[in-house]
Amino acid sequence: MIYDIVDTAFGEFMLAGKDGRLSVLSFVDGPKFQPAPKEWIRGEGAFEEAVSQLEAYFAGDLKEFDLSLAPEGTDFQCKVWRELEKIPFGETRTYEEISRALGNPKAVRAVGAANGANPIGIIVPCHRVVGKDGSLTGYAGGLSLKRKLLELEGRPGMQYELFPL
């Protein structure tokens, strides 16, 4: 696995992948950040296209990513992540809506767990998933980053006051 650490307008991110496909996008300053394993190889500039698209997204110029992805997870997690990719820029879904879209309305907690295990944050937009009442819920990059991303996408009316930061 090749990785790089990049600095963006929204902070530092670690990107990793192999064979031209992105497998990891994590937030270096996030509460769940895991450093690259020793066997991974640093490849500065290895993810230029992903970084270019991230910067365009952060500038408000890109609404949909076009990258080759290879997230690693269980079959169920991968199904959830594919469903997350269907959530349009500027919109949100609840965990229940995702579970219903998967044909299993009782899998709300499992959807939440899969959402939390998403290895390619932002690009696979787990930040667009909110609580049943519209409140912000956990995010690997922290709720502050989740709030910023939703505001960037034009969602300033979310119920942020439930989780003051």
Automatic annotation (TrEMBL):
Boundaries of every Methylated-DNA-[protein]-cysteine S-methyltransferase DNA binding domain copy: 75-154
Organism: Fulvitalea axinellae
Pfam families according to UniProt: DNA_binding_1, Methyltransf_1N
GO terms under cellular component: cytoplasm
Protein name as it appears in the record: Methylated-DNA--protein-cysteine methyltransferase
HAMAP family per record: OGT
Active-site residues, Swiss-Prot/TrEMBL: 126 (nucleophile)
Role noted for this protein: Involved in the cellular defense against the biological effects of O6-methylguanine (O6-MeG) and O4-methylthymine (O4-MeT) in DNA. Repairs the methylated nucleobase in DNA by stoichiometrically transferring the methyl group to a cysteine residue in the enzyme. This is a suicide reaction: the enzyme is irreversibly inactivated.
Upper classification of the organism: Bacteria, Pseudomonadati, Bacteroidota, Cytophagia, Cytophagales
